[in-house]
Each structure stands twice: as C-alpha cells, then as structure tokens.
Amino acid sequence: MKIIVNGEGVESGAATLADLLVDLGHGGAAVATAVNEGFVPATARPTCPLRPGDRVEIVAPRQGG
Amino acid sequence: MPVFYGTEIASALMLGTALYPSPAILAEAFRRSGAGVATVSLRREAGGGREGQDFWALIRDLGVRVLPNTAGCHSVREAVTTAHMAREVFGTDWIKLEVIGHADTLQPDPFGLVEAARILGDEGFRVFPYCTEDLVLCDRLLRAGCGVLMPWGAPIGTGRGLMNPYGLRSLRAHFPDVPLVVDAGIGLPSHAAQAMEMGFDAVLLNTAVARAGDPAAMALAFARAIEAGALARAADPMEPRDMAAPSTPLLGQAVLA
User: Fold this and answer.
1) Is A4 in CB contact (< 8 Å) with chain B?
2) Quick one: which of B111, B128, B114, B119 has its CA closest to B184?
3) Straight-line distance from the first to the last Cα atom of chain A, in angstroms, rounded to the nearest whole number
4) Does ipTM exceed 0.90?
C-alpha cells in the first residue's frame, strides 16, 4: 500500500506504525510519531494500524531557539 | 536565580541551540555561558538518519535543563500535538509554547496562545508561553494556568533589543511574583543587562550568540552582562531625574571669580 511518510509517498507492507518504524530503520531511536495529524505515543504504535493513504510524521530532536 | 514551576535554575541565561557553526562550538558556547536551560525542537527525521540522535546525545551531555519548543506552529492543534511529541521524546513536561500569528514578524497569535496554553495546562504541561508584552494577554495566560511569562523584546532573530521598555516594566510591576523572561529580539549583552535591571528573572536568546563571530566569547559576554544586570537590580538603582544635580559639594568651594 502507499502511505505518506514525512510528506513523501512510500510503498509499505507494514501492518502497524511500530512495524513501519522498524522497516524504515528507526529501531529504538528517540523519535515521536503522529498519524493523520494525531499524536501516537510510543506505547500505542504496536496497536496503531496503517491504512492506504495514511499520513505519518516521524520527528526527532533538533536545534531550536 | 530563577525558579520555574518549583525548579531553581543555576543561571538566568537560557540559550537556544540553533544556528551554531558546528556542534563543538555550540557545546563550547554553553560551557562558557553557564546557561541552565537549552531550548530544542523536533523536526522530521529520515529513516536511518542519525542527525537527531547525535544532536540529542550532545544536548544530554551538556547537563542542562531542556526546554522543547513548538516553533513553526501556526495553529493550536499543531502546537498541542507538537507538545505531546516533545514530552515523549525529551522526557519533560516543560514546553516553550509558540503559536505564531504572523509569518513575517513571527508575532505570537494571542488568541491561539491562550487556548493552547489552557489545553496543555489541563494535560499536565508546564507551559512557557512565548508572548508579546501585552498586559491583558499576559493576564489571560496566567489565568489559563501559565506559571511563567516570556514576552518578546523584539521579533525573533532581529537583535533589536527591548523595543517597548515601558510595556516590559509594566509587566514587572503588575506581576511582581510571576517569573518573567525576555524571549527573543536580544542582540547585545547590554540588551540582556537592561532586561535584568528591569527586574526580569531570566533572558532567553539564541541568534545573538550563535551568529556572533566568536559564539563562545559572546556567550561569556552575555553571562557577565546578565550577572551585572541582576546585581544592579538587587542594588536598587537610583531614580533618573531631568535636572542636573552636582555630585561634588558646593559648600566650601573657593571664590575665584
């Protein structure tokens, strides 16, 4: 299925958000996630299903003022 | 030293982590500044990317308190969602709340700011609102649960200093027991000293240090200016007056004319 990850189209077979993070190489990295503009806590990723067209955001620490 | 939500900070200088020429210079600037708080953000991370993880390791090594921001958010929903993401990643309920209302000036949206502050306060966040010096807005933020106010000195990144000293003094006078931080617009150590002389509890800045020719030296200059300003405030400065008043005694002056 095709989903949108950080604004880019991605072909993915991941059933859940947790699976997607592993597939993309985020593993145990310090990242936060949202699906369709809604925050998904790390504890909820294994039970967060992904569907075609879902918009996923994956963010990490960055410099800020 | 400033106390935010019951936590005392070792320095009245709060320093941003953006725009430095290199991570090593960022770390050296923090070391020289003695800053007690570092502001950070969240941005998209590519799959397998290390940038965010390496940056986070660098910040943790600084040993300072972290204050995540919601920079770039123009809506309440964006800001609230970003705050939740930040709380999870950075492991703190402190959030520098930015809800931008104008793209050119980066002026806060006062209506969205109050709404987001109320939502986040109800959800257990300790909100540090980036706001204007508008007295009514600040009052509403306090009533929404904020325990700190962070009015701008001037628009972000301009380095123009305290554009409305009267408004900032009014805030200090009206809210004598609320921790106040000048956030944004500081360009020179003298601006930071001025804020401290007014009785502000802390100063938050980034560009003035990061974009200096020698960021580490400028960080030290800010630290000393802030210390000087705080000492001056505690020493109870004289009142200015319009007419000259000789400091040398007139009594006993020889008549030579």
Assistant:
1) no
2) B128
3) 38
4) yes
- Other beta carbons within 10 Å of B239: 5
Residue that has been written with the tokens 């990317």 in this structure: B49
CB-CB under 8 Å, A60 with B69: no
Helix/strand/coil for B54:
helix
Residue B92 annotated among the catalytic residues of the structure? no
pTM listed for this prediction: 0.95
Q: Which of B96, B118, B140, B191 is catalytic?
A: B96
Tokens encoding B169: 């003094």
Q: Is A22 part of the contact surface with chain B (CB cutoff 8 Å)? A: no
Distance of residue B247 Cα from the nearest chain A Cα, in angstroms: 45
Candidates B59, B77, B156; nearest CB to A65: B156
Tokens 């990061």, residue located: B210
Q: Is A54 on the interface with B (CB under 8 A)?
A: no
Question: What is each CA distance from A40 to A34, A50, B47, B88, B237, in whole angstroms?
Answer: 5, 12, 18, 10, 52
Instruction: Say if A28 is an interface residue toward chain B (CB within 8 Å).
Output: no
CB-CB contact of B145 with B167 (8 Å): no
- Interatomic CA distance for residues A20 and B15, integer angstroms: 35
Residues of A in contact with B19 (CB under 8 A): 63, 65
Tokens of residue A64, six digits:
């800020």
Give, for all 257 residues of chain B, the pLDDT tens digit.
999 999 999 999 999 999 999 999 999 999 999 999 999 999 999 877 889 999 999 999 999 999 999 999 999 999 999 999 999 999 999 999 999 999 999 999 999 999 999 999 999 999 999 999 999 999 999 999 999 999 999 999 999 999 999 999 999 999 999 999 999 999 999 999 999 999 999 999 999 999 999 999 999 999 999 999 999 999 999 999 999 999 999 999 999 99
Nearest CB among A6, A29, A57 relative to B53 is that of A29
Of A31, A38, A41, the CB nearest to B45: A31
- CB B74, CB B65: distance < 8 Å: no
